[in-house]
Amino acid sequence: MAADHVDVLIVGAGLSGIGAAVHLGRECPGRAYAVLEARGAIGGTWDLFRYPGIRSDSDMYTLGYSFKPWTDPKAIADGDSIRAYVRQTAREYGVERHIRFHHRAVRAEWDSATARWTVHAHRDDTGEDVTLTCGFLFTNSGYYRYDEGYTPRFPGVERYAGTLVHPQHWPEHLDYTGKRVVVIGSGATAVTLVPAMAERAAHVTMLQRSPTYVIALPSRDRFADAARRWLPPKAAYAVARWKNVALGVANFQLSRRAPGVVKRFLRRAAKGRLPSGYDVDRHFSPRYNPWDQRLCVVPDGDLFAALSAGRASVVTDTIDTFTEQGIRLASGEELPADVVVTATGLNLLALGGMTLAVDGAEVDLASTVAYKGMMLSGVPNFAMTIGYTNASWTLKADLVATYVCRLLRHLDDTGRQIVTPLAPDTDDLVPIIDLRSGYVLRAVDQLPKQGPQAPWRLHQNYPRDVRLMRHGPLTDGVRFARAGAPATAPAATTSSGGTDA
Ligand SMILES: Cc1cc2nc3c(=O)[nH]c(=O)nc-3n(C[C@H](O)[C@H](O)[C@H](O)COP(=O)(O)OP(=O)(O)OC[C@H]3O[C@@H](n4cnc5c(N)ncnc54)[C@H](O)[C@@H]3O)c2cc1C
What we know:
Radius of gyration: 24 Å
Bound molecules: flavin-adenine dinucleotide
Distance between the termini: 32 Å
Helix content: 25-40%
C-alpha cells in the first residue's frame, strides 16, 4: 500500500510546531501538510511541565507568536495560560485537524531520485509502525528528552526515606503542605519552584553547588499596558514586542562588552532586595559572566521576597551524601528534608531523537554545519527550529517558519524540487549552542556545528535575523536542483550565490 504523502511534514506540536503550521497555512496555502506529535496533547514544554509555579521567564510579547497578540495583562505568564494560548492558536488557525497524535517520528530517509523523505513513526498508543512520505521535513521537536530529565548520581540516594521528585515528572497529587523541602539546583526551574513551594511548605531550601545570576522583573509590563490602552491590539503587541526585543539586545550586548558593569548592577539589584547582612556574594554572585549561562528572571522578585520572609533559604555547598532523613553537605551541615526536588536539568536531544539518512548514507549530526541556524549541510529539504539562547525562543521560531515558506515558494517559482545547503569550506567550526550551561556541555559533541560567518554563523540577534531571514537572499550557500539530482555536492566556497543543478 502506498504511504500517505504530504508536501510538508512538521514534527512536533509544541509552541514552534503549531506556529510553523500557521505560517505554512497562511504563507503557502497550496501546500498540504501534517503534524506528527509523539504525545497525546498540544503544547510541548507547556503541557509536559506541571510543577508548582511553572511559568515563562521571558516576556510573552516576545515568547508569543508574531501573528497572534498576547493579550493577557501578565507579561510573565504561568504554564496554563501559555498552554491555552498555543491550543487556542491551533484551533483558531485550523491546525488541529492536521495533527496526528501519538506518532513519534523515529527515522527519515531522503531519496534524491523522487525528491522525497520517507518518514517512519511509531505509535506509542497502538504499538503500530507508520510510514509517511513528504517533500519537505520540518522538525519542531524542541531540544530535550521528554521521557527523562537529567539527574546526577547522588551518593546514598537509595537510602533516602523521603519523597524524591524531578520537576519533569511532577506527581499530580504531591502534598508538600507543612513539609520541609530541599530543591537541588540554581537554574530557572529551581528559582521558580522555591517561592511557589514556600507558600505551603514548612520551609524550602534551595541547595546549589554554585550561584546563578538572578534578576527581578515586573510580572506586568507597564509600557505594554499603556500601549494596549491607546492602540489597537495588534499595534500595541508589535510595539511592546519591539520594545522588549530592543531591551533584550541592549542587555545582551552590554553583558558581552562590559560584563563587569552588568555584574555589579545585578549584584546591587539582588542586594537591594535581600535583608541587610545577607551573603549576596556567596549565594548570588556567579564566577562566570552574565549570559555565559541564561539569566534567571524572578517576577516581582518573588524569590527574594520568600528569602527575606524566612520562608525559604539558599545554601551554597556540595552534597556529601543523602541520608535517611535528608542530605549531608560537604561542610558537615545536615539538611533534613521530607521532599527533595532535583531541579538538576534536562537531557538535550536533537531532532527529537530522529535519525536521518540521505540517499542511503547515515547523517552524522555532529559532522553537519547549521545553515542560518535552521538547515543542515548536505541534508536536502530539511529544516529544524532551534530558538534563541539569549532571547525568547519564538522570535527565532517565527523567522525559521517564514524562511521555510519563502524557500518553498522559491522552489515553486523556479520549477525546482530540491534545496540543499552546501557545507562551508572551512575548519573553523564551533558548537551550535554557545552557552556554558551543564545541559549544553553534556551534549555538545552530538550537535551540529556553526561556521565563522553568515550564513553559517548564529548571531543570536533578532533584528539582524529579521533582515537575514525575512528579506535576505535565499540562494547563498545552497544548491537548488530538480528531482533526480544527487544530494552530494561540492562545498560552498563563498557566502553568496547558490549553485544550481
Ligand atoms: C520549564 C521550561 C521553561 C521554559 N521557559 C522558557 C521561556 O520563558 N522563554 C523561552 O524562550 N524559552 C523557554 N523554554 C524553552 C522552551 O522549550 C521553548 O520556549 C518552547 O516551548 C519550545 O517549543 P518547541 O515547540 O520548539 O519545543 P517543545 O515545547 O519541546 O515541543 C516539542 C514537541 O515536539 C514533540 N516531539 C519531540 N520529538 C518528537 C518526535 N520524534 N516525534 C514526534 N513528536 C516529537 C514533543 O512531544 C513536543 O510536543 C523553557 C523550557 C522549559 C523546559
